[in-house]
Amino acid sequence: MRIGIIIGRIGGVDGVALETEKWIEVLKRMGHEIFIISGQFQNWDFDPEHDTLVVEMSFFSPESYWGQKKAFFHPDANVDELLEHINLYSNIIADKISDWVHEKKIDVVISENASALPAHLEMGRGIAIALEKLGIPAITHDHDFAWERGNRYLSPHEPINKIVEETFPLRLPNSFHAVINTPAQETLKRKYNRDSIVVPNVMDFNMKFGIPDEHNKNLPRDLGLNPENRLLFQVTRIVRRKGIEVAIQLVDRLKDKNIKLVITGNYKDDAGNIYYNELINLIHQLKVSDQVFFASHLIHNKGLTGRNGEGKYSLSDAYANATACTYFSTYEGFGNAFVEAVLAKRPVFVNNYKPVYWPDIGSKGFKTVMLEDNNLTDDKVEQMREVIYNEKLNREMAEYNFRLGKKYFSYEVLEEKLRQLLDIVTRLGRSV
């Protein structure tokens, strides 16, 4: 089958781009030929036969930037010019998508979040116009929706709100939804009576990952740490919802100077550095500056195994040195860092983050130390202490979780889900 992927940016480090690459890899394993149309190919080996650039589809194009600014951030009193702009570029994008489908003889289209989140109004509408005209079967891979972003996509202009409501998510009869979690599936059904399949974010459980070797054994030394230190790793960006302050409080509560917390994220991820400065203040308040280390200068935080010259060590190298991982997020659409730790065979200390941890991950039976509302009780601290010091327990938890991870979040699971989706949309295409 000739499958076309529509995405605003491919090859980037955002969750949509990373999961799309996994879908592409598995679809190719299944024998399908993949064609990509995108507004930006970032760190990508561009193949003119299979890759098509449409600059208007980029999130950073003047067309998209101006449309977003005038629709949501700095609206003008008169909405007519904005509506003309959206209409013009929606049709330009629709025509280019239609030409691409015909030229590449595409059988099925997959829209990667572009038909779910109004982050590019013109692209979302362009996709809808093209797919309605073509009648081609389409899968919308919905990573997040406007209603999950508070007031981010609420405009003072009612015509814009109408466009958002009518276009996002896509609701054509020749389309079907793949969502990444159960709450999204339930909301989609309740709000729009649209059925969907939950396709979790996955990892390749056949890859070598988080394994100590002659290279990564030097990571602690390069951080100024000693062999006897026990390292907790926070392998996330530095943003408030990651709950990094709880990991810092844990280090303080454990009362052992040999326990160190290594944070791989970069302070640049935090807009205005407000949260980062709060973390620095907490570190000094608790007097744990000799136990908390920021390591983005050493660790390439944007790829699992490749370093690409941006850091001496990869995420795989980081996990290879972890005694356990901290993951006290308060909100996640899924939670890739949890599955990464499972893949690396490292125990995880986790908060029951909303809305998906327990219904979509924790309830599968993973063995963790789990907090509720990031309440770091004495009992939970003692459970974490036991995991850190009891090497047998640590190893047993990690091996057990790895087996569960392979069962529920592997490429084999993704392949099964993709077969279901392709069967459904193929039947939809014949019925419209």
CATH architecture of the largest domain: 3-Layer(aba) Sandwich
Strand order of the largest sheet: 3-2-1-4-5-6-7
Please provide the ordered H/E string of secondary-structure elements. EHEEHHEHEHEHEHEHEHEHEEHEEHEHHH
* Overall body shape: globular
Q: Alpha-carbon distance between the termini?
A: 19 Å
CATH topology of the largest domain: Rossmann fold
As a percent range, the share of helical residues equals 40-55%
Q: How many extended strands?
A: 15
Report on this model:
By secondary structure, the protein is an alpha/beta fold. It folds into 2 domains: 2-202 and 411-431, 3-Layer(aba) Sandwich (Rossmann fold); 216-408, 3-Layer(aba) Sandwich (Rossmann fold). Helix content is 43%, strand content 14%. The protein has a 7-stranded parallel β-sheet with strand order 3-2-1-4-5-6-7, with helices on both faces. The radius of gyration is 23 Å and the shape is globular. The two termini are 19 Å apart. The mean pLDDT is 95.
Detail the topology: elements first, then pairings.
Blueprint: E1 2-7, H1 15-29, E2 33-38, E3 51-53, H2 62-73, H3 80-104, E4 108-112, H4 121-134, E5 138-142, H5 158-167, E6 175-179, H6 182-192, E7 196-198, H7 219-222, E8 230-234, H8 244-254, E9 259-263, H9 274-286, E10 292-294, H10 315-320, E11 324-327, E12 331-332, H11 336-343, E13 348-351, E14 354-355, H12 357-361, E15 369-371, H13 378-389, H14 391-408, H15 411-431
Parallel strand pairs: 1-2, 1-4, 2-3, 4-5, 5-6, 6-7, 8-9, 8-11, 9-10, 11-13, 12-14, 13-15
What labels would you give this structure?
globular; 2 domains; 432 residues; alpha/beta; Rossmann fold; 15 strands; 15 helices; 43% helix
